[in-house]
Amino acid sequence: MFKTFIAGILLGIAAAAAALYFVPVVDQFREHSFIVVHANQGNTESFHVNVPMDRIMVGAPAQNNPIPAGLDWPDDEQFADTRAELFKLRNGKDAVVGIASRISASDDDSGDIIEWVLHLPARGSAYIGMRPEAAQGGHRMGELKSGTREFAALRGQVSERWVADQSGSDSAAAGRIEILTAFVGTEVESE
Amino acid sequence: MKYLISLLVGMLVGVAAFLALLYYNPLTSHNKLSPLSVTDNDLFTLNYSAVAADSLIYTNDGESRVAPYPAKVLQLWERPIRRSSIVATLLSDSRNQLVGLGIKLSSDSESTKPLNGELNMDSVWHIYLPGQGSLFIEQQENYWGYLRDIVIPAYWSSGDNWRGIWNGHITSGPGALGTSKVIGGSGRFGGLVTDGVESLAAKAFSVEHGPVAMTAEVMIELPRLGSEASPDP
Predict the structure, then answer these.
(1) What values do phi and psi take at B198, rounded to 5?
(2) pLDDT tens-digit profile of A131-146?
(3) Which residues of chain A neighbour B9 with C-beta distances below 8 Å?
């Protein structure tokens, strides 16, 4: 019986080690990616934010109804021209796939800044700098400045635009912020 | 029958012994020395409180130990973001002067390997410092030391809390020396590519509320002209 006990201990150690080795501790849930592949022009992918339901935070000076309620945004002078927003990010099928931050600011040293960080837990993050001036059609163009994991080896353009809801339904969103990415692998670019 | 019971008891003892070995494994003790402590370059630090109620907002799936703040903030309950958290906080410099705003987006990392003492988070910082510019920080964080030295002792404590002094850097990559990758976006940081390290200084932790007294520091190296960030592994 003692030998069985010793065998059980060894078996328990082996089972615990095997479980920790083979069973993933973290397995992020993945929604399908809707990526359009263009001939010799990289890939495009569309994301959007439904406003107001996907707004997590709108940080800006002198708000009567801050989002979220109870947000204590600093009234420090240096943040007078700063607006920081946090959103849930959706894919082309309206499923939440990530979270995003958008900072727009202006100061004498940096000029006008509009930046996005898109964070998709199962894929990685993208750091995007937008040009302050809007292009035709209400688009604002920008570029991928840096990325992590899946976005690390990509370069390319990003556009954002506001699309107002036309349905007239009371339950519909006021509109959506559309973000269209057009990325190409850096290996392709260097060829 | 007695052999079966003996085997099962043995297996339970084996699992317990393995977990004890994992917990006390000296090879996975965290290194308290920052990889930037030996650099010749200038460093600047950004400090913030790691207590959720001290931030502008903190949110997660709403079911974790640390409660979202403020109470009515939108929670991250959808499956793809359920294991993520957001903190937006004010940042101060080494003289405790308010210098900017930081947003940290974090998710549990699929590279987590408890066998190796790796309890990883993939996180990015989006930072704006008025009058200076913007930064993006990519990092992998390892909370194994934090779990082992603070969280588990808090559970073992009869008062369900931990008090003491714990300092440790949590950044474990992607830099070869365990540093984060810092990208300058605009202003005086435009074009900057350098290294950083984030560290925690904990004094009190509650099983019910999470960190009670804890500050964090993001240290960023400002390379001299002509120098490069540490290469990726």
Answers:
(1) -110, 135
(2) 988 887 788 999 999 9
(3) 5, 8
